[in-house]
Design the sequence.
């Protein structure tokens, strides 16, 4: 059998490589290729390497000679071993080379997650595959891989796919996910763990929203949302539409991370670790956009037909409502019903806009149920637009892993909050020193030998005349106020190293209080502005 | 934080720019360990230093102890925030502040 077969038309040359190409037959292959390409120099060449078993350097030189006459070469169906040869020799940079994809069957596999762009199946004990809705999904897969890697580097626990496979007519990406259980499944099957789920779910959410993304690495959610609003122009009264546009437009730019599809099927418990999946919707922007998609997932899509959430998440509408309310309170760090509802209103405005557009685009106006649902959402949206004047809200908390490396993140957050309060530079510096001392203590001592988180909350106190900062950790009970003050009158030689940090906090802040409550160390400092 | 080092004979001047805190103090400690041998006079220029936390104080204390045995140490250009911290912690009695 010939190692090279070929055919050509006016636009392209097709070559098929077969078996082994090495020094024993390279000259033969070279002559065969020349006879096929002769007189058709400059035509693009598509090489199918499905049956190619091996290629030596003599074989590679044949391809290099071909490249001199026909510059555009695309090699497809390359098996992993040969791909590695192409990669090591730099050929992957000189020509387009696509791997052969192994085929995976999802017949009878359990669905463990479902997102906007695909469905996740468990294919065996250790592995899952995300099958994309879009048949030509290679670019999407590449995108998701890149953003997942970015998120992981920025400190968000996630799974990164290690292989791309063919699944029927579509593509899938394969992840290792051992014994994973989604939060939806936990809520549906172990209702007694709902509060635990709320806590972990909110921790992860705050971690995402506290993550600063290098400019340009992720799309801006506001641009996407303005696109939704633009679509709505024909479906809302002019005045209401203008107000909606202005309010979305006025949301300030924010470089913090958003997940974009943060519901309980996208959070997995793997052994004892919580992992975020389905990363292709990752973006940057103000948290109101995230709350909007969360509202939709738990409440919005099920407002007309309460069964929707049951079908999608596996738990009922009542549980979803309970979960959403608890999450919102915990995320905002307040039990003040009025404050919670005001921010929920902002999220709902964006949420309804998105759902109405989506439904109309999916021909919702052509069915009776679709029209009733769109009418219901539009009615809510108009009422909310009437009583809301801004979609912005300022987050007063940041949650980070209790590690010294996160100090800059904390200080940056506190400084941005102090800017809001018109704090003098001198007071701001003193507060920053105090925040550093307390956070460093938590990072070093709260979780000896294990990992944990710290929550920092900044708020106005004493009617705006002071600022109050609260540090919460779930580490060992430890009251720093019991530590004896150092003797600051001793000479350099007699001075012990240590104990100074907290002493400085006590001296520079107006008050410092400690409390151990519900398994949490809570330290509060206040400082007059 | 940026450290600018200038050595003239046995006199070393370190100009610090930025913040001397938990994350940056190890850099200063390393610099001192690497270059203090044979130095008789150590001068810190703090005119571009914004603030200092206890981690920074520890490094200064260690430097002061070492310079007590091999020469002299002084700090100049201290701003109000840092002067306050030196005052509160008693460091103003230990250090020579110009």
Sequence:
């Amino acid at each position: 059998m010939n190692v090279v077969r070929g055919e050509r038309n006016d636009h392209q040359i097709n070559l098929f490589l077969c078996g082994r190409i090495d020094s024993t037959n390279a000259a033969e292959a070279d002559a065969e290729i020349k006879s096929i390409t002769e007189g058709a120099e400059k035509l693009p060449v598509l090489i199918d390497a499905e049956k190619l078993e091996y290629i030596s350097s003599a074989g590679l030189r044949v391809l290099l000679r071909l490249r001199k006459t026909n510059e555009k070469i695309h090699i497809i169906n390359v098996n992993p071993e040969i791909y590695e040869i192409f990669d090591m020799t730099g050929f992957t940079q000189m020509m387009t080379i696509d791997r052969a994809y192994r085929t995976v069957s999802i017949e009878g596999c359990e669905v463990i997650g479902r997102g906007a762009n695909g469905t996740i199946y468990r294919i065996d004990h250790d592995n899952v595959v995300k099958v994309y809705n879009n048949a030509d999904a290679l670019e999407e897969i590449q995108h998701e891989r890149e953003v997942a890697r970015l998120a992981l580097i920025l400190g968000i626990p996630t799974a990164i796919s290690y292989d791309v496979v063919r699944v029927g007519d579509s593509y899938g990406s394969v992840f290792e996910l051992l014994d994973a259980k989604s939060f939806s499944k936990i809520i549906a099957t172990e209702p007694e763990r709902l509060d635990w789920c709320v806590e972990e779910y909110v921790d992860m959410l705050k971690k995402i929203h506290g993550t600063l993304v290098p400019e340009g690495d992720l799309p801006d959610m506001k641009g996407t949302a303005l696109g939704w609003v633009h679509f709505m122009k024909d479906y809302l009264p002019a005045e209401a539409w203008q107000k909606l546009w202005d309010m979305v437009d006025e949301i300030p730019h924010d470089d913090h991370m958003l997940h974009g599809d943060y519901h309980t099927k996208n959070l997995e418990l793997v052994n004892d670790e919580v992992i975020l999946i389905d990363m292709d919707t990752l973006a940057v922007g103000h948290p109101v956009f995230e709350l909007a998609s969360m509202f939709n997932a738990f409440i919005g899509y099920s407002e007309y037909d309460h069964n929707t959430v049951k079908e999608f998440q596996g738990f009922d509408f009542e549980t979803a409502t309970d979960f959403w309310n608890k999450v919102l309170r915990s995320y905002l760090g307040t039990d003040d019903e009025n404050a919670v509802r005001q921010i929920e209103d902002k999220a709902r405005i964006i949420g309804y806009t998105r759902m109405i557009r989506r439904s109309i685009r999916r021909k919702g106006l052509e069915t009776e149920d679709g029209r009733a649902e769109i009418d219901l959402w539009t009615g809510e949206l108009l009422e909310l637009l009437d009583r809301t004047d801004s979609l912005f809200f300022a987050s007063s908390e940041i949650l980070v892993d209790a590690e010294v490396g996160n100090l800059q993140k904390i200080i940056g957050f506190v400084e941005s909050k102090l800017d809001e309060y018109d704090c003098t530079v001198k007071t701001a510096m003193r507060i920053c020193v105090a925040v550093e001392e307390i956070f460093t203590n938590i990072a070093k001592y709260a979780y000896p030998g294990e990992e944990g988180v710290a929550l920092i909350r900044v708020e106005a106190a004493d009617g705006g005349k002071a600022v109050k900062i609260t540090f919460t950790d779930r580490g060992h009970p430890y009251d720093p106020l019991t530590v004896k003050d150092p003797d600051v009158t001793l000479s350099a030689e007699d001075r012990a190293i240590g104990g100074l940090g907290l002493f400085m906090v006590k001296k520079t802040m107006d008050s410092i209080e400690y409390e151990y409550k519900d398994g949490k160390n809570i330290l509060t400092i206040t400082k007059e502005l | 934080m940026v450290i600018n080092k200038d050595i003239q004979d046995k006199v070393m001047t370190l100009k610090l720019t930025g913040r001397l805190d938990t994350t940056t103090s190890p850099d200063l400690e390393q610099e001192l360990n690497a270059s203090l041998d044979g130095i008789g006079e150590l001068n810190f220029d703090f005119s571009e230093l914004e603030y200092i936390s206890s981690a920074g104080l520890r490094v200064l204390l260690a430097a002061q102890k070492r310079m007590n045995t091999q020469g002299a140490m002084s700090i100049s250009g201290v701003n109000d925030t840092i002067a306050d911290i030196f005052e509160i912690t008693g460091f103003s009695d230990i250090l020579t502040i110009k």
